[in-house]
Amino acid sequence: MILVIGGTGTTGRAVLHTLHGRGLPTRALVRAASDLPPSVEQVIGDAADPGALRAVLTGVSGVFLAMGNGPRQEEVELGVVAETARARVEHLVKLSAPGPADSPVAIARLHHRVEDAVRATGIAHTFLRPYAFFQNLLFHAGRIRATGSFPATTGDTPLNMVDARDVAEVAVAALIDNPGGTHLLTGPEAISYPDIAARLTAAGRPTRCVTVSPEQLRADLRGAPNWLIDHVLEIQRLATTHPEHPNDTVARLLGHPPRLLDDFLREHAPAFGIPNRTSESG
């Protein structure tokens, strides 16, 4: 039995769908009943509750941990690590973050502290460190559809982006084969936000990326939690000071290349306002 904690998030949900496709016994700890694959055993509970964790870990051999970012993330993840070790789970796969232990990105430092806690337990583990997800672009989709523009502070800086479904496939491969290790995950190319705008334009939705200052972006994000605004600004600042380069890790681990951004944009064409181009006949 494999337990997924964080199964309603972008990567966790993709992991559940991948496990479902493999026909593997799967359990998900969720706060409320969710629209998950029918084969998934949903257990209602809170990952912050040690009692709920102990109950849901019964009979579990592998755990995928992908808590959403937030003020209590470190506290909750450390609790999951402790209960996973107590339950003598064979393998823990954790969604983590790239960057050094002294990263200027607060959430990256948090992930490193949780990684250290996992190592201290002696439990077999795999750490997955993706950069930005293709799926994050959907955050801008409504604005792009309505106005044809979106803001960023990174200018022409190339960014590593990867499809969350590729990360999920790597996670499931780790849960099945228990190889362990720490993996920096990227897509097949590093691409700037202006380049993404150009690809949307070429696909039929004229789009431009507006380069703004960190102060302007903070004002644009007003209304979001302060920790989230800080996180967005930190990761965009880091990208401009520490160049990001694609690697072959996904292809090496899965035996096939990672998904392409162009395919992702076509897949989500209606969300971005890309017109449906059908071949003319007659």
UniProtKB/TrEMBL annotation:
Origin superkingdom: Bacteria
Domain NAD(P)-binding: 6-176
UniProt cross-references to Pfam families, sorted A to Z: NAD_binding_10
Gene3D superfamilies: NAD(P)-binding Rossmann-like Domain, UDP-galactose 4-epimerase, domain 1
Protein name from the UniProt record: Uncharacterized conserved protein YbjT, contains NAD(P)-binding and DUF2867 domains
